Amino acid sequence: MIRKNHKPAFCDENPIDCHFDVKSYPAGTTVHNNDTNIIYLIFCMKGHARITSTFFHDEILCAGEVMFVPHGSEYSGVALSDVTLLVHKFNNTVCRAENCILSYLYSHKNIDSKIYCCQRRT
User: Fold this and answer.
1) Which of 57, 97, 103, 115 would be 110's cystine partner, CB 3.0–4.6 Å?
2) For position 27, what pLDDT does the model report?
């Protein structure tokens, strides 16, 4: 199931070129981005996916986690289980991400302190 241009209630931005897509994929489905000029914020609502891009390799995205994919990056993903994603596609000229999905994530504290944390690699 794919719902395009679904604007969640937590977003009060209204730019022309800002899109929220809720996408559900069965386990084993492979997807990739079609436009490397777009910035992606991918919020995993349910399930698990493995995502690889030109900037990182085989990262696991679990329910409750968010992944940032910068513009200029090609990425592909495989649903490791049935997965539902909220994909926010935008560019810096039309959207202030801090008023969209990031605002929602920052305002919804999760009991598990491991969720919504960034990983630092050395």
Assistant:
1) 115
2) 97
